[in-house]
Amino acid sequence: MDGDRRRAAVVALGELGRSPDYRDRADAGHGLAGFAEMPEAVRPLLELVLDPDDTFVTLVTARAVLRRKDRAGLRIVASALATADENRSDWIHTAIVDVFGIFAIDRDDAMRLCEEMSRDADGHVALGARQLHEILRAIDPVLRPSQPALGDSTE
């Protein structure tokens, strides 16, 4: 990986994220999600998840970050949840259900990471991780691991 090019991409997407056009900001959030593990991408992503002018930006960015299904993405959403107003929280909640409402294994992995993050030294992350865990716990995923039917034998 070329670190300089990745940093340049984050800078360019960060600038796009400051556009007055909501579509540019949503595209920036979607693109920046791929760089969520980079410290320089965290602040712009948080600002886009909490976009004060358009909840479409919130929804698109939150979905993209959550689709990573990793600690970096969950950490950004947890931090945003801790400070989000009610309207932004609702759209973040929608993104969480969209991403984790299908596969039980994905939801369960995210819950495990949230339990770990609930002890984070950053108070916003810890608080948001607890909120995120509660949202995840309430989701009943569509697909669960298959289990043998009664009477079936695996022998």
Q: Could you please describe the fold and organization of this structure?
A:
It is a single chain. This protein has 155 residues and is mostly helical. The protein has one domain (3-138): Alpha Horseshoe (Leucine-rich Repeat Variant). Helices cover 68% and strands 0% of the residues. Helix 5 crosses helix 7 (104-117). It is globular. The mean pLDDT is 95.
Largest sheet geometry: none
Tell me the distance between the termini: 47 Å
- The helix/strand order is HHHHHHHH
**Poorly predicted segments:** none
Principal-axis shape equals globular
Number of β-strand runs: 0
The share of residues in extended strands comes to under 5%
